[in-house]
Design brief:
- This protein is an all-alpha fold and about 160 residues long.
- Helices cover about 40% and strands about 5% of the residues.
- Strands 1-2 form a two-stranded antiparallel sheet.
- The chain is elongated.
- The N and C termini lie far apart (about 65 Å).
Amino acid sequence: MPAQQTNYLPTWTTERVEILKKGLETGLSCREIAAQIGVSRNAVIGKISRLKLARDRTDLARAAKKEPTDGRRPRAAIKRRQIIVRAPPREPDRAALDEPIHNGHTCSLFELSKETCRWPISTPGAADFCFCGNPPAEGLPYCAGHSRLAYRLSTQR
């Protein structure tokens, strides 16, 4: 039985490898290099790895360390959620869970602010759609009543 002939064209020619190296030197992203060469981004990443090439990380490190412009810490909300979740489990007060939430301060999307509860009421797009509008609990986007609904601990724990 004769060996099968394959029409194998090498993906990584010397010209393509040179384009890859020049792209790395100029600071192009792997996606941009891949578009120039005509291969996938993963092919470029794999070739960089196989050739043991290194990207100059000083520009990337500087870009990653940018401070937020509004002065807030970017992970404050994540830390707040972790504190809520790590709180010691307690027996839920059934009366408090069943207590109705007063919604006398409803507001529209344009009236929302940091001083209003952002809990949606009704279905978006419906004529009666609005937001709660009550004063929010400290550090949370919802009022005390809606925070009880939003931050319930899982019963599987």
